[in-house]
Amino acid sequence: MAGSDNGALGTTFKVARILQSLSLIAIIGMAAYFISQMVSQNNAPSDVLVGTLSVTCIAVLYCAITYILYIDNTLPFLITTGMDGMLLIALIVVAVVVGKPLSYLNCNVIGSSSVSQSTYQLGLELKKSFSKEGSKVQYSNWIGASKVTCYEMKAIWGLSIALCVLFAFSAICSVCLWRRSKTVAPKSVEA
Questions:
Q1: How many C-beta neighbours within 10 Å does residue 190 have?
Q2: Smallest Cα–Cα separation from 26: which of 137, 152, 142?
Q3: DSSP tag of 146
Q4: C-alpha to C-alpha distance for 101 and 97, rounded to whole angstroms
Q5: Alpha-carbon torsion (143, 47, 60, 85), positive or negative
Q6: Which residue, 85, 83, 107, is CA-closest to 156?
Q7: Of 48, 3, 8, 11, nearest in space to 30 by CA
Q8: What DSSP string describes 39-107?
Q9: Chain CA centroid to CA 2, Å
Q10: Residue pair 69/4 in contact by the 8 Å Cβ criterion
C-alpha cells in the first residue's frame, strides 16, 4: 500500500481507523434496523437511535476520508487530532445516552416467568405506543421489548464505549505523528 513510512505509529493509526470503521458500520446496521422496525409500525423512531445513527454515519465518513488522506500523505495530523477529540466527545454522549437505561436492564430475565407481569405491562405500553399512528417510540420501552433487542442494544452500547477508546487512541497517535512530522532532521556538519 502506498503512503508514508511512519513505522509502528503509522501502522497503529491505520489499524485504529480500520477497527473504528468496522465498529461504526456494525452500529449503523443495528440502529438502522431498529429504526426500520419502528417506521414500519408507522411510529416515529426514538431520538436516541436517530442521534446514534447520525453520529456514526458522520464518523464512518470521517474515518474513510482520513484513512485515504493518510495513505496519500496529505493528512493534516493536528486537525485530525482535534476532529478525533470532537468525535470522541460525541461518542461519549452516545455511549452515555444509550447506556443509561441499559445499565439497569438484565437481558437474561426478559421473558422469564419471574418477570412475566412486568413483561406484560411493557407489552401493553408498546401496544399503546404502536396503536397511535405516528407516535414516538420511547427508547426505554423499546430496549426491554425482547431479549434480542436488549442484547443488540447492549452491543451498540459496548461498541460505543470501544469507539471512545479507539478515538482517544487515534487522537494520541495523530498528535504523535504530527510531532514526528515537525521534527527537523539534524544537518550534517562537514569539516
A1: 4
A2: 152
A3: -
A4: 8
A5: negative
A6: 107
A7: 48
A8: HHTT-BPPHHHHHHHHHHHHHHHHHHHHHHHHHTT---HHHHHHHHHHHHHHHHHHHHHHHHHHTT--G
A9: 28
A10: no
Q: What is the pLDDT of residues 120-162, one digit of tens each?
A: 555 555 555 555 555 677 777 778 778 888 899 999 999 999 9
pLDDT at 185: 60
- Mapped onto helix, strand or coil, the DSSP state of residue 176 is helix
Three cell numbers at 104?
A: 439497569
Q: What is the rounded CA–CA span in Å between residue 11 and residue 148? A: 36
Considering only CA atoms, which of 169, 180, 159 is closest in space to residue 84? 169
Q: In the chain, which residues have pLDDT < 70?
A: 1-4, 111-135, 184-191
- Cα separation of 11 and 8, whole Å? 5
